[in-house]
Amino acid sequence: QVIINDPQQVIINDPQKIVIIAPQEVIINDPQQIIIIAPQQVIIKALQQVIINAPKHVIINDPQQIVIIAPQEVIINDPQQIIIIAPQQVIIKALQQVIINAPKQVIINDPQQIIIIAPQQVIINDPQQIIIIAPQEVIIKAPQQVIIKAPQQIIIIASQQVIIKALQQVIINDPKHVIINDPQQIVIIAPQEVIINDPQQIIIIAPQQVIIKALQQVIINAPKQVIINDPQQIIIIAPQQVIINDPQQIIIIAPQQVIIKAPQQVIINAPQQVIIKAPQQVIIKAPQQVIINAPQQVIIKAPQQVIIKAPQQVIINAPQQVIINDQQQVIINAPQQVIINAPQQIIINAPQQVIINAPQQVIINDPQQVIIKAPQQVIINAPQQVIINAPQQVIIKAPQQVIINAPQQVIINAPQQVIINAPQQVIIKAPQKVIINAPKHVIINDPQQIVIIAPQEVIINDPQQIMIIAPQQVIIKALQQVIINAPKQVIINDPQEIIIIAPQQVIINDPQQII
């Protein structure tokens, strides 16, 4: 054993090196202060335990390296402050546990690297602040748990990388702020769970990459704001669940890519706003469900691609607005259901393509407006049903093609207007029924062709007017019946050809005029 006791101060000062080695224990106790200073190296080694206790301050200061190694435990306790400062490296290693406790502040500062490694647990507790700063790398590794707790602030800053790894759990808790800031990379990896909880704010910022990976769950909770900001990439991956909850705002911004993947569920909840922005791609994937909920707005923007995929369900809910914008493509895929609900507006815009695919149902509901716009193509595919409902207007526009396909039913309902516009083609196909209902107007407008095909029935109902206009061809085909009903006028206008074919019946009803 090496035991150093002093009722006042323990000062170990050497102009070159301080080496404290014991095959069993190194215990440094002081009721006031422990100051260990060396201009080159401070090495504290013990085969069993390294325990550093001081009721006031523990200050370990070295201009080059600080190495604290113990095969079992490294315990640093201080009722006030723990300050570990080294201009090159701070290495704290233990085969079992690394425990750093201080009721006020834990400051680990290094201009190059901070490495904290323990094969079992790394526990950093502080009732006020935990500040871990390194201009190059901050590496916190433990095969079981990494627990970083502070009731006020947790600040982890590194100019190159922040790597937090644990074989079981990574838990970062703070009642005030959790700030993880890195100018290059932030990597948080755990084979089981990554849990980041904060009652106020969670801010994760890195100019290159933010990677959050967990083999089971990634849970990010904050009652106020969750801000994940990265100028290049944001990758959140979990083989089971990705849950991002915030009662106010969720802002995920990356200038290149935002990738959120989970083999089971991706759940993004915020009572106010969910904003997901990336200048290149926004990819949200889950083999089971993708659920995006916000009582006010859901905004998903990317200048290249917005891809939302789930083999079971894609549910996007917002009581006010759902805005999905992309300068190139908007792709929403789900092998079962695609459900987009908003009580005010649903706006899906893309300068190239809007593709909505689901092997079962595509349901787009909005009490006010449904606007689907793309300068090239709008493709809505579902092997069972395509249902577009809006109490006011349904507007589907594309300068090239509007294609709506469903092997069972295509239902477009709006109490005011149904407007389908495309300068090239409007193709509405369903092997069973095509039903277009609107109490005011049904306007299908295309400068080239309008093709409405269904193996069973084509039903177009409108209490006021039905206008089907195309400068080339209007083709309405059904294997059973073509029924066009309007209490005022039915106007089918085409400068070239009008073809209405049905092997059973063609019924055009209008109490006033048929033109």
How would you characterize this protein structure?
The protein is mainly beta and 515 residues long. Among the domains are: 1-179, no CATH class; 385-515, no CATH class. Helix content is 0%, strand content 65%. It contains no helices and 65 strands. It has a 22-stranded parallel β-sheet, with no helix packed on it. The termini are far apart. The relative contact order is 0.04.
Reconstruct the topology from this structure.
Layout: E1 2-5, E2 9-13, E3 17-22, E4 25-29, E5 33-37, E6 41-46, E7 49-53, E8 57-61, E9 65-70, E10 73-77, E11 81-85, E12 89-94, E13 97-101, E14 105-109, E15 113-117, E16 121-125, E17 129-134, E18 137-142, E19 145-149, E20 153-158, E21 161-166, E22 169-173, E23 177-181, E24 185-190, E25 193-197, E26 201-205, E27 209-214, E28 217-221, E29 225-229, E30 233-237, E31 241-245, E32 249-253, E33 257-261, E34 265-269, E35 273-277, E36 281-285, E37 289-293, E38 297-302, E39 305-309, E40 313-317, E41 321-326, E42 329-333, E43 337-341, E44 345-349, E45 353-357, E46 361-365, E47 369-373, E48 377-381, E49 385-389, E50 393-397, E51 401-405, E52 409-413, E53 417-421, E54 425-429, E55 433-437, E56 441-445, E57 449-454, E58 457-461, E59 465-469, E60 473-478, E61 481-485, E62 489-493, E63 497-501, E64 505-509, E65 513-514
Parallel strand pairs: 1-4, 2-5, 3-6, 4-7, 5-8, 6-9, 7-10, 8-11, 9-12, 10-13, 11-14, 12-15, 13-16, 14-17, 15-18, 16-19, 17-20, 18-21, 19-22, 20-23, 21-24, 22-25, 23-26, 24-27, 25-28, 26-29, 27-30, 28-31, 29-32, 30-33, 31-34, 32-35, 33-36, 34-37, 35-38, 36-39, 37-40, 38-41, 39-42, 40-43, ...
